[in-house]
Amino acid sequence: MTQSSTEILVVGGGLGGVAAALAAARSGRRVVLSEETDWIGGQLTSQAVPPDENPWIERFGCTASYRQVREGIRAYYRRAYPLRAEAAASPELNPGAGRVSKLCHEPRAALAVLEELLAPHRAAGRITLLTGHRPVAAHTDGDEVRAVELDDGQGGRHTVQAAYVLDATENGDLLPLAGAEHATGAESRAEYGEPHAPETADPANLQGITYCFAVSHHEGEDHTIERPAAYDFWRSYRPDFWPGPLVGFAAPDPRTLEPAIRTFDPNPDVDPLDVAADQSADAGDKELWGFRRILARRLYRPGAFDSDITLANWPLNDYWLKPALEIDGYADADTVRRAHEEARQLSLSVLYWLQTEAPRPDGGAGFPGLRPRPDVTGAEHGLAKAAYVRESRRIKAVTTVTEHDVAMDLVGPRGIVRRHDAAGIGSYRIDLHPSTGGDTYIDIPSVPFEIPLGALLPVRMRNLLPAGKNAGTTHITNGCFRLHPVEWNIGETAGRLAAFSLDNGTEPHAVREKDDLLERFSALLDRTGVERRWPDVRGY
């Protein structure tokens, strides 16, 4: 057992965790940042998910440091890749020309940029990074966390003492370890009066997880994988609310729930510079190859790449049969282990089906030339290192954001709820994927929102802060808070808040409660590029 101490401990190296560590270090504070995998970056890297963002992201709608990440990724491609002159000159370069985002890119590009941002702080000793470490215990004293015990994956334990502890894990793992009040799954309609909440609360009703995978396509070659062990099950599985087998091109439209047929045509001869990505105008999800494409070969000089690379995060490989989260009375560690194994089998089954059975535009069946890309994802068979987690445990917060605060049908298309303690902003549709409770999609319009500082404050714990998807939302509003720039903003604000509290000999709750402290903290966020107010924009 090794022991160390720091000023701020950030547990979880996803987007929120990196943002929190960076903000605290830029404030001059010493930080230990732990991460369960060997890649920092979470959604952008180990989970291999191109960024889901608001339609105004190129002009406003994120923090300055998040914008630094985005522009860093573009600079990485301009510096390292043989781009066509027109692509290199484009100020809004989209390396993959995917339709889901204005910045689709390979996971390793984001990893390189995030590591570069942390590098000077690691060299100066302000940030200590512990990869391959996961939390297994928290030592508390009343309403405070004194230390967190980390398993190093090699049979050892490392206990870190800290004045402030930030939970940036993908599942909100510190909350039960520390005994912090928290929620899981769906609240009842009676609790907050949310129109889309179920009549009865269901703590085990979680959005599905996804093991994304990357593929390229090489006509005339055969890269067919071994038939997955669970292929027969997944090939025949048909959800009650699905128009056909889950492993197939027929799936509900998330917004209308009407049956829709997806298409799949590798390496289309369309100029990627003509592709527009605007979720407010067109979801862009019906053509699977181009939806989350992360490298578009025709953006680069002829001969540089013989195929695009696309990322499979589609209706076909969302998994929701079991909760992938330990919940007392509902799911234990073995349930979670089996959920992840079944989710991996689903994604491999989708890949095998695409290679062997999927209908081709030319009337044939199967694309054996689909090549898994473990070199892109860093893991076996081209699957991502970690599952894409959409919904974690959530703190019971001083302020809970509900459907009444963000749903366009309830507040009107320009009905932004103004927060006196605004600590950031975000925007995305309320987008819930099918869940372990048997629910189909809930994908409804929302309005841009201000992130209340109260949503980052637990009702009781004094030095434990959420730094990701575990902030004070509901099952419903998590659907618009879980996206990349919002998670980053929450982490960045949490890191600044912990550092500000140390600087001023106070605590986070007092920062919100005392007008002079709140005014000074808000001014700090303004100076450091955390946007707190929206201009006059409408929801979508």
From TrEMBL:
Keywords, in A-Z order: Oxidoreductase
SUPFAM superfamilies (UniProt xref): FAD/NAD(P)-binding domain (SSF51905)
Main EC class the enzyme belongs to: oxidoreductase
A single MF term (Gene Ontology): oxidoreductase activity
EC code: 1.-.-.-
Entry-linked Pfam families: FAD_oxidored
Protein name, entry field: FAD-dependent oxidoreductase
